[in-house]
Write a structure and sequence with these properties.
The protein has helices at 10-14, 17-32, 64-72, 93-96, and strands at residues 3-9, 41-47, 51-56, 76-78, 86-91. By secondary structure, it is of the alpha+beta class. Helix content is 34%, strand content 29%. A 5-stranded antiparallel beta sheet has the order 4-1-3-2-5. It starts with a strand and ends with a helix. The protein has 4 helices and 5 strands; from the N terminus they run βααββαββα. The protein has one domain (3-96). The protein is globular and about 35 Å long.
Length: 100
């Protein structure tokens, strides 16, 4: 199973794109089924202060609306995030603990 990430600039985060992504992610999961929070997470890593990588767990790639969201923001397949400098944003907090 594959992880995905979206890259946002500091300006995009400042202008509300991160908030928009998180709201859509949570709305999608709630509309599909509340149990879909299981192993669906979004996390963030800041790189050099100018770029923010938003990570989506492999389970998220099974939900077509989340894949659409990733595609809208030109997301790409990536390796799982490393434990350093990762921030939990939304989803299954118990699953996220493995990465924090």
């Amino acid at each position: 199973m594959k992880w995905y990430n979206i890259s946002l600039s500091r300006d995009e985060v400042r202008h509300g794109e991160l908030h928009k992504i998180l709201k859509l992610f949570c709305d999608i999961l709630e509309s599909v089924n509340k149990t879909n929070y299981l192993k669906n997470i979004v996390m963030m890593k800041s790189i050099a202060g100018n770029e923010h990588l938003i990570y989506f767990s492999p389970s998220s790639s099974k939900i077509s609306a989340i894949v659409d969201l990733i595609n809208i923001y030109s997301g790409s397949i990536c390796k799982s995030p490393r434990k350093s400098n990762i921030t939990y944003l939304a989803g299954d907090i118990e699953y996220a603990q493995y990465f924090l």
